[in-house]
Write a structure and sequence with these properties.
With about 475 residues, the protein is of the alpha/beta class. The chain folds into three domains: about 70 residues, Pdz3 Domain (Roll), CATH 2.30.42.10; about 200 residues, pyruvate-formate lyase- activating enzyme (Alpha-Beta Horseshoe); about 140 residues, Rossmann fold, CATH 3.40.50. It is built from 15 helices and 15 strands. Strands 1, 2, 3, 4, 5 and 6 form a six-stranded antiparallel sheet that branches. The structure holds iron/sulfur cluster. The site of iron/sulfur cluster has 9 residues, from loops.
């Protein structure tokens, strides 16, 4: 095998890597005398109490380092290429692919279609397994790498081939079964398309997948996202309120049965379904610890719970604050109710919530994570924004200060003439962002949110200096 050199991007302060004298730009050549093909190999080889690392320092000198550590203990180093190998692009042409519906002219990396099972392990991406060779499956099993997050969409072989536009996509159940029998923890995802994989097809998929519980820990059902850039693509319709109610009825029925059988709810509807159906979000305990948080399942409920907790700890006072929040239309009523909760103890806090219409991708897109800097500027210019404008951190590309359309936070600040506070995902951070003055050099502690388009992620958020706003 050709010897690969894996360049270290960062070394966490206080980590074993730092103690060993590793530095960014050093190269890992081998672990226990074995070359490292990719991140799968690396994790497998590192799961030992004693390892020998062969390192090439920046000046070309080679170091052989002996490490004694806990079995699964990490060295605290990250590599420039998180996969430690070439990214595998996808071999499908899904009828619902979001990337196909993106406007032209955005930065190149946003159009990269990754479908690499190693990304599933590394950063929680959902993968179709269609370009996973037998050898890859063997390695996942042999190395016991989990969880593996799978974009199932349907368990019907014929329909899956049609939906993914890939004649090799029909063997999903066999692949899942192999992983299941090997005890690999799994999560599934179904992107629901109206008239295609809903109704009896959804029933069938959920019935088939239920057989893999509890090794398969959860399955999320999310509605297809439709932008205004669908010319020439497969005709897909948005779901209605009645459709959403029917989907929820199916999911709740499965939840009830699975709770009885396995003690977990197993199938989870993304937040959008409840909003579209005009129904209350499920209670905290129905999310089973939020295994599908990154898929937009329970984000709103978890935030509310965390805000409640944070507010319980506070006495309140009469501080005066006048500020604003911009978010997607989906989250607007929730933001307003969070502000009301804060006002119960801080009555002089006055925060206006601005729902931003997504003209860039199309008005059907109502999540905050796809709002662009251009839409923010156009809809907020001239508004009374108060002493600061709060924006959720998922509007920015992970680890950067840029919106999807490449506008920066600094440019937005300049255009709107207001200090901008990027708000972390936790309820505690939200409350602090509302009540405290904007902090210079504040570091964000984001939950890692799955970004389908973030193929260049290399873990910089873990130890990089990020987001002074
Ligand atoms: S949805 Fe995912 S798997 Fe399907 S074509 Fe797009 S990137 Fe590939």
């Amino acid at each position: 095998m050709k010897l690969k050199k894996h360049i270290i991007a960062c070394v966490k302060p206080g980590s074993i890597g730092e103690e060993l004298g590793l530095r960014p730009k050093d190269k890992l050549l081998a672990v226990n005398d074995t070359p490292v093909r990719d991140v799968f190999d690396y994790h497998y080889l590192m799961n030992e109490e004693y390892v020998e690392l062969l390192i090439e320092k920046e000046d070309g000198e080679e170091w052989l380092l002996e490490v004694e550590k806990e079995y699964e203990e990490d060295l605290g180093i990250e590599f420039e290429n998180g996969l430690m190998d070439e990214y595998r692009s996808c071999s499908n042409r899904c009828i619902f692919c979001f990337i196909d519906q993106m406007p032209p002219g955005m930065r190149e990396t946003l159009y990269f279609k990754d479908d690499d099972s190693r990304l599933s392990f590394l950063q929680g991406n959902y993968v179709t397994l269609t370009n996973m060779k037998d050898e890859d499956l063997d390695r996942v099993i042999q190395y016991h790498l989990s969880p593996i997050n799978i974009s199932v969409h349907t368990t019907s072989p014929r329909l899956r081939c049609q939906m993914l536009h890939n004649r090799f996509a029909g063997d999903i159940l066999e692949k899942i079964r192999r992983l299941y029998e090997a005890g690999i923890e799994l999560n599934g995802q179904i992107v629901l398309c109206k008239g295609i994989n809903d109704k009896e097809e959804l029933e069938r998929s959920l019935t088939d997948l239920s057989a893999f519980a509890p090794v398969m820990e959860s399955v999320s059902v999310v509605p297809v996202g439709l932008t205004r850039f669908r010319e020439g693509l497969y005709p897909l319709e948005p779901f209605t309120k009645e459709d959403a109610r029917e989907v929820l009825e199916t999911i709740h029925r499965f939840q009830k049965a699975m709770k009885k059988k396995w003690g977990i709810h197993f199938v989870h509807a993304s937040d959008e379904w409840y909003i579209l159906a005009g129904q209350e979000l499920p209670s905290d305990d129905r999310y089973d610890g939020y295994p599908q948080y990154e898929n937009g399942v329970g984000m709103l409920r978890l935030l509310e719970e965390e805000i409640k907790e944070e507010m319980k700890k506070r006495e309140g006072d009469s501080r005066k604050i006048k500020a604003s929040i911009a978010t997607g239309k989906l989250a607007t009523p929730f933001m307003e109710s969070h502000i009301k909760r804060i006002q119960e103890k801080y009555p002089q806090v006055d925060i206006q919530v601005f729902p931003i219409t997504n003209f860039y991708f199309g008005e059907e897109i109502t999540v905050s994570g796809l709002i662009t800097g251009k839409d923010l500027i156009e809809q907020l210019q001239g508004q009374k924004l108060g002493e600061k404008l709060l924006l959720p951190c998922n509007m920015l590309r992970s680890g950067e200060d840029v919106f999807l359309d490449d506008l920066t936070v600094a440019q937005l600040k300049e255009e709107l003439k207001v200090p901008i506070v990027i708000v972390d995902t936790r309820g505690e951070d939200f409350v602090k962002a509302v009540l405290e003055p904007p902090r210079e050099n504040a570091k964000l502690r984001r939950r890692q949110i799955y970004e389908q388009t973030n193929s260049g992620y290399c873990g910089k958020t873990e130890c990089g200096e990020i987001h002074p706003v």
